[in-house]
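Q: I'm writing up a methods section and want to include an example of the input and output format. Could you take the sequence below and give the corresponding predicted structure tokens, formatted cleanly so I can copy it straight into the document?
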Amino acid sequence: MTAVLIALADVGPAVQLEEQLNKAGLKARWDATQADGPQGGNSAAVVLIDADHLGRKLKVVADLWRDQPNVPGVIAIGASQIAREQAPVARTTLVNPTAKITTLVAAIEEAAKLRLASDMRWPVMRAATNLPPVADTPAAWGPTLSAARKVDIEIPRAALRWRAKHYATPTPRLAELKDERMLTPGELEASEWLDGTMTVERCVGAGPMDPQQTARFLWALGSMGALDFSSEVRDVATAPRRMLDDMRKNLRARTARLERSTFYDVLEITPLAEYPEIEEAVKLVGQRYSPEVLEAYDLAELTPMVLPTWELVEKARSVLVDHAARGRYHDWLRQKLPELRTVWAIDPPTVTAAAAAFTKGQTALAEGDVHRAMSDFAIACRKFPGHPEYEANFAWARYRVQVASGRDRIEAAVAERKNIEELLMGCRVWPRALVALALLCAASGDADAARWHLYIALQADPNVPAAAQLAQRLGMRR
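A: Here is the clean output for your methods example:
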């Protein structure tokens, strides 16, 4: 007979539930004193908690229950919007208060069955492996890992299901386990995949162990705090994680940027662009967004965005390189442009005037006249707002003028850097804009970020002199 603790604050529903569950053959008991969390003296297999009452504290309270020595299964009862939002965060089933009693009983039986798969924590792991509760110390790691290798596969499978699309990032504990020589040869080899750039579902199939043993291994490491699971890339201290994080952010931003846009915005070219410039634009977009590039990264839930994003590029290219199709597209644009969002589909005379002002600004900057450079860049940006190179160079010149006027260097650099980082997110790679951004990063004291932007710039175009010079000054190896 499954023992159930009803930890609800409201006496009316609680008493009714207690009566109905007991009639259904369960051993139910209501205790309002535990509505805000465990107070001790509980041995129930399943706890019903009040999601509407707890609100955003639902996850905290659910975790407190799972930390109890008996490791009960947790079910949330609620119907509010916040309950629906918080239940997945708390990794608990949400049952509506008006649901049929048979529905609730089925949820209780499932929670009791999988209570040891509800979370990945040291006490839960010990209980799941039929080991008595002990402190999490190196002396206990070996026997616990040994037992975890033989645990019922349904436990790690159910526990990992919540995190299938989460990235598995090693913590210092994994290095400790290696140093203590507690991992098998297969586990050591599998741990090489665990660099924070692969999701759980990708890791399970990566080998060299069979998927079931790998699942047990991931579950054990997660329960011991040797792996951290997160829906976004965690800790971009390594180049592979930083690149993956960069790809995810750009892909997500590009999808939003191109909503109701034009083919010129897709390729980031103006209506003056001819065939060579169109092909070069496709190449630069492809360096960041082509399926061939992105297939090297585990993009998790963003993977479905890749093909539609690239199909839009191919469609834009096919229309803009065909004179007849381009003419028809211009006819369509004249009618629809007020309904669209665009940076790039602007009048050719304006494009020419903006380019001329930008050239003047570059000349002034090279001559050391930052005030004149800022003025010319401002004209270019006013005529062509949102152009990555114009905006980035304007930001750099504006920073220098502000510092010359007495503003704090780091404060000014951080503000300008933030604006340009936001502007470039979701764009194709603009090497010269990245050089200006790298200068702002260096000025703000973040040499690592400066080197990263230069690395991306030089990957796209190794022949940008300013990038190569700055890279050398920052001690980069090319």
